[in-house]
Write a structure and sequence with these properties.
436 residues; alpha/beta; Immunoglobulin-like; Rossmann fold; 10 helices; 26% strand; elongated
């Protein structure tokens, strides 16, 4: 190397060191700290018609000054795709979300009171009335019917529009505002309530039945708990890669964990099977065996085992009601298939209370199926000599007009059903061997 080149190299190195020293000194003098955003975590919640991104947790390198953040500090965008209405190509179509609350927290989690506590996370809460943010997408379409799954890579994005400052640091900036820099999520989502379920699988005769279950927070083996078995729609059946979607796709699984849905403080065990779709008879046989095993392993009140169904799940309920009537205390059938005459006779003989709900303009399963089920069960009870009053206590029925649905999916009768606490309370009030 020539002397001239050595001199140039030394000058360049000195310039780098001087620049680095200036940046360090700038940080040391609390003028600015450019450590930036450390992580971004989506937070999801299951609403009536399914799971959505309900908040985003933004992590910084130090505790955040709550006074430095407000509703205009961030922009969040999300997909407008909804598997019920949109082609999968719409997954890439994004729209801004409405920010409703911004506060600090010590972990990547929402707070019920929406108030800041000391922490390095900023929680950005989003409006549930927005059109976007759904997490469930089409999984496979092995036939003309498709299955669904929870999207493993949520498309939610965030931009920080204004500087975020450190707490008690003389105004040090943890990250500058970069409104034109759109950031993807960096962490796996925090799924409120869904993450509290435990996964397991039942194996019998070469068939696998995956399921998730939830035990009360203070589960006591010495105490007996009611068991709610949630039987999901056809698209939530297990397809090999969509494990757990039956909890997230709609409200029936997580509703039983929340007083705001049940109107009750009573603890229940929730069991959410995910049968492979191989035919209702075979699925029902496997389901009954799995429930037997589950009850043997957990502290279940065997006089209070309930089935609640969505669409296709009704076929499993009708079949197991008929074949194993001693198992069930009651059933809630929403937007379901028609009961057969044989099944109706067995259900009537066992006096299993049933509540049927259906949308008048259901576009997938015509309202006639629900009406025929009511007629078949009424006829079976009449043949058994039951009075009108006795039948009315055993068989409940509600039809919903379009105005009962907050989204225009009139097949999703579980929506208005679960939004009516009295129906859920009716189910929990039933006891095997008693009518009310």
């Amino acid at each position: 190397m020539t002397l001239r080149k050595k001199a140039v190299a030394l000058l360049a190195a000195a310039a780098v060191l001087t620049s680095a020293g200036a940046a360090y000194a700038q940080s040391d003098n609390n003028a600015t700290v450019t450590t930036g955003i450390q992580s971004i975590t989506p937070i999801t919640e299951v609403f009536t018609y399914g799971q959505r991104v309900s908040a985003v947790a933004v992590e910084y390198s130090a505790n955040v000054d709550p006074a430095s953040i407000d509703l205009k500090s961030f922009t969040v965008a999300d997909t407008v795709y909804n598997f019920r209405f949109n082609p999968i190509d719409d997954l890439s179509k994004m729209a801004d979300r409405t920010i409703t609350n911004v506060y600090t927290n010590s972990r990547a989690h929402t707070r019920s009171n929406k108030q800041s506590v000391t922490g390095r996370y900023v929680i950005v809460e989003l409006d549930s009335a927005d059109a976007g943010g759904w997490t469930v997408i089409v999984s496979k379409c092995p036939t003309f019917l498709c299955t669904v799954k929870v999207n493993p890579e949520l498309p939610t994005t965030l931009a920080q529009r204004k500087p975020v400052k450190a707490l008690g640091s003389g105004g040090a900036v943890l990250a500058p505002g970069t409104p034109n820099r759109v950031r993807s999520m960096t962490n796996a989502p925090v799924n409120l309530l869904v993450d509290e379920f435990t996964y397991d699988a039942y194996l019998s005769g070469g068939m696998a039945l995956p399921y998730h279950y939830h035990l009360p927070a203070n589960y006591n083996p010495a105490k007996k708990y009611p068991l709610v078995v949630v039987l999901p729609g056809h698209g939530m059946g297990w397809d090999g890669v969509n494990t757990g979607v039956q909890i997230a796709a709609d409200i029936p699984a997580v509703a039983w964990l929340q007083r705001k849905w049940t109107g009750s403080d009573e603890d229940v065990i929730v069991l959410a099977p995910q049968n492979q779709r191989v035919g209702a008879v075979a699925e029902a046989d496997l389901l009954a065996k799995m429930i037997d095993q589950f009850i043997a392993a957990h502290s279940v009140d065997t006089t209070r085992v309930y089935a609640t169904t969505v669409s296709y799940g009704s076929q499993l309920a009708w079949e197991t009601f008929a074949k194993r009537p001693n198992l069930w205390a009651a059933g809630l059938i929403t937007g379901g298939f028609q009961v057969s005459a044989t099944q109706a006779g067995a259900i009537a003989d066992a006096e299993i209370p049933v509540y049927i709900t259906h949308g008048v303009n259901d576009h997938l399963l015509n309202i006639s199926l629900a009406r025929n089920s009511r007629a078949a069960l009424t006829a079976a009870y009449t043949e058994d000599g039951k009075t009108e009053q006795e039948i009315a206590s055993l068989l409940k029925y509600t039809e919903y007009g379009n105005d009962a649905f907050s989204i225009p999916d009139y097949h999703a009768a579980y929506g208005p059903t679960y939004e009516d606490r009295s129906i859920l309370q009716w189910l929990l009030s039933q006891r095997k061997g008693a009518t009310s």
